[in-house]
């Protein structure tokens, strides 16, 4: 088995920022990596070099750290032709034992250099390729290889690797301020939350516990989803705040037309989220709206419900269809939790309004005293931080 001693971490979008912003983002990414697992980490010439205490744990955690584009576990050797030859022979020997290369496997050497050397990248690649051919007998195919072996040469150190593992990309967590995300146990809102986390936002998740209109299982799902999302928040706090919302829904059903329940529910959620944002120092609200997907997500209803708040509401899924959203939910690991049956919400009317107008919403909001009701819910809230 190959004994890797370092991980080369690549970051993309961070690298194209201006010098001051780049330094700040690099520093935060480095800090987030160190917070995720025990390691020594440093930046050199556009790469982060990570020396972990536990290689397997590090490879697992890096796949969920925003700002990381890709990473490679590598073997470090001296930049010397004789030393590289010995190391390469041992390296491809291990690859052969693992079944990754045989005498029939087309391969390519990819060489990259930083610094001054008395040889070119092409010369080193040709030399390394000849070593592999002599050792294994495999054919060289630079155009369509089944295996690529990389030599990254940096001054007097050479890093040998063959795996390039994809990271989540995006911006380092905590570089873009704080947002409040409306989080349910469904498929959409966890994906929307993830996408804002990917853009560098710290998240305070707000969940409305709609019992008695929802079953206890729905609360359990949300807590599990929050735990899954927290895996992507290395270096920043991920907070889940749960509010008992059933009394407000009961009042909506009792004092407003039945078909307006969903619209009033959503307007109340936005106002609650805004109160939380003001308390937490957040600058925006996030939700999982996808245009036309459900009654509260038609253009008239989006306009009517968002009149309840002054703060911007960000809807990263607004132009995505269900298939796209589900694919992303599966990739980030929330889909299997979201589809656990929980009975849905019993407050949903048979024929919800799809075209509420702002005047009607204002009138109904005054009638049922939305501001006072949401204020009471906010003040009597239970607060739960998502589990470690």
How does this structure look, described?
With 388 residues, this protein is α/β, with parallel strands linked by helices. It folds into 2 domains: 161 residues, VC0802-like (2-Layer Sandwich); 208 residues, HUPs (Rossmann fold). 41% of the residues lie in helices and 20% in strands. It contains 13 helices and 14 strands. The strands form 2 sheets. Strands 1, 2, 3, 4, 5, 6, 7 and 8 form an 8-stranded mixed sheet that branches. Strand 5, helix 4 and strand 6 form a beta-alpha-beta unit. Helix 3 packs across helix 4, helix 8 crosses helix 9 and helix 8 crosses helix 13. The two termini are 33 Å apart. The relative contact order is 0.12.
Which key phrases capture this entry?
six-stranded mixed sheet; single chain; alpha/beta; elongated; 388 residues; Rossmann fold; 13 helices; 41% helix; disordered C terminus; VC0802-like
Distance from N terminus to C terminus (CA atoms, Å) equals 33 Å
What string, H for helix and E for strand, traces the elements in order?
A: EHEEHEHEHEEEEHEHEHHEHEHHHHE
Residues in helices, as a percent range = 40-55%
**Secondary-structure arrangement, i.e. CATH architecture of the largest domain:** 3-Layer(aba) Sandwich
Number of helices: 13
Structural class: alpha/beta
Give the total of beta strands. Answer: 14
The CATH C-level name of the largest domain is Alpha Beta
Strand content: 15-25%
Radius of gyration: 26 Å
Query: So what's the overall shape?
Result: elongated
Number of domains: 2
Determine the CATH topology of the largest domain: Rossmann fold
The main pleated sheet reads as: 8 strands, mixed
CATH superfamily of the largest domain: HUPs
Q: What's the average pLDDT?
A: 94
Low-confidence stretches: 382-388
